Amino acid sequence: MALSEFELIKRYFFQSARAFGVNMGIGDDCALLSVPENKVLAVSMDTLVGGIHFPRNADPELIAERALRVNLSDLAAMGAEPLWFTLGLTMPKADEQWLEGFSRGLFACADQYNIALVGGDTTRGPLAITIQVHGAVEQDYAFMRGNARVGDVIYVTDQLGNAAAALAVIRQELSVGKSAFSYFMQHYYRPVPRLKEAKLLRGITHCAIDVSDGLLADLGHICEESGVGAKVDIERVPVSTALNKVAEAEQIANWALGGGDDYQLCFTVPQAKMAKVEQLIADGKLNATAIGEIVKGGDVTCLLDGEPYEPSRRGYSHFDRA
């Protein structure tokens, strides 16, 4: 006998939410939540659709982790700390084996990042996952896309391009060995939301974005909101050793600049505060690389050996194929 909606929720998604500020979690018409004192609420929502944002036949545990992690990345991009999230789950049928894996991955990730599920909805239809995350940040420390200024140095955390390579492997456009396969899949399904890095950067940067649609596309959003331009030195964009082993330089550059799904932080730092960032890097507390500068104008320009360079793709658009 098929599970009813309420049985499904109770069996796979009900937890006694004892997280901060949860006065009433799952089980009523609304959750009742208390926002931390002297902070503002940061709210973001993403929908991941089967066959577009992840393979439909992927491990449900990994699907759940990816879905929550990419939303947590939005909180990092605002400098906010995670508090609660809601889940909207649409699926063709109530497959208990699939739900078991999905809920296991979801709560493993939620526990890791100390965020509580406080509500949501389930319905029947094509596989899709909508997660809304809630976090808190002091107003003066919030990172905003519109706060970049001419002369700021542009940084990115960790490395870019690994998720794009993973997608090429998933699509059977790239063949790699077992070790590289595991490495790239880890980056695709379990991207690390840069919450620790965001915490370190409070008071140093006031402008950041997470790299979800591609470095150049997302940096372009900063430029548009701030009314500035940017120059990026391609040779300084950090990529992994694994990436260098499986592709040629031009392909690597295209993945790193326009591949997306990396969920690294791209942030800008005033010249006067560069020393603080460089000290965090030197102390091993922050893995970040300076890749360019905010300039006058409105375009994002790439440079290779000091000369203008135009990559074949600048980023992902949800309606490219519409």
Description:
The chain is an alpha+beta fold. The protein has two domains: 5-140, 2-Layer Sandwich (60s Ribosomal Protein L30, Chain: A); 144-309, PurM-like C-terminal domain (Phosphoribosyl-aminoimidazole Synthetase, Chain A, domain 2), CATH 3.90.650.10. It contains ten helices and 13 strands. The strands form three sheets. Strands 8-10-7-11-9-12-13 form a seven-stranded mixed β-sheet. A four-stranded mixed β-sheet has the order 3-6-4-5, with helices on one face. The protein has a two-stranded antiparallel ribbon with strand order 1-2. A hairpin with a 7-residue loop joins strand 1 and strand 2. The two termini are 39 Å apart. Residues 318-322 have low confidence and may be disordered.
Brief synopsis:
The protein is of the alpha+beta class and 322 residues long.
Quickly list its features.
alpha+beta, seven-stranded mixed beta sheet, globular, 60s Ribosomal Protein L30, Chain: A, four-stranded mixed beta sheet, Phosphoribosyl-aminoimidazole Synthetase, Chain A, domain 2, single chain, 322 residues, disordered C terminus
Strand content: 15-25%
CATH homologous superfamily classification of the largest domain? PurM-like C-terminal domain
Count of alpha/pi helices: 10
**CATH fold description of the largest domain:** Phosphoribosyl-aminoimidazole Synthetase, Chain A, domain 2
Taken together, the total number of domains comes to 2
First and last CA, distance: 39 Å
CATH architecture grouping of the largest domain:
Alpha-Beta Complex
- With strands numbered from the N-terminus, the spatial order across the biggest sheet is 8-10-7-11-9-12-13
- Tell me, briefly, the overall form: globular
- Rounded to the nearest angstrom, the radius of gyration is 20 Å
The mean pLDDT is 91
- Proportion of residues in helical segments: 25-40%
Largest sheet: 7 strands, mixed
Enumerate the spans where pLDDT stays under 50 for 5 or more consecutive residues.
Answer: 318-322
Number of strands: 13
H/E element order: HEEEHEHEEEHHHEHEHHEHEEE
